[in-house]
Give the backbone structure.
Amino acid sequence: MHTDLSKHLHTPECNAIIEALQKCHAEHQFKKFLGFCNDINDSMLKCLKEERLEKRRANFEKSAYKRIRDIEQEKAKRSSQ
C-alpha cells in the first residue's frame, strides 16, 4: 500500500506520475489487473520512496540541530549557576 496520493502532498514530478497511473487505470479498466500499468506504478513507488527518504533526511537534520541547541542551552544554564 502507498501513501495518500493527494496533489498537495507530493512534488510536481511525482504528481505527473500519479496522474499518468490514474489515467492508465481509467483507460484500461481490465488490463490493469493483468499488469498493464505496472511500469508506471513502479516509477510512482520509486518517486514516493525518494520523497519519503528526503523528508526523513530533513527531519533528522532538524532534530540533530535541536538536540545540539538543547545541549548548548543546558551547558549555559549549568555554567551560569
In short: The chain has two helices and no strands. Residues 24 and 37 are 6 Å apart (CA to CA). Residues 38-80 form the longest helix (43 residues). Residues 7-80 form one domain.
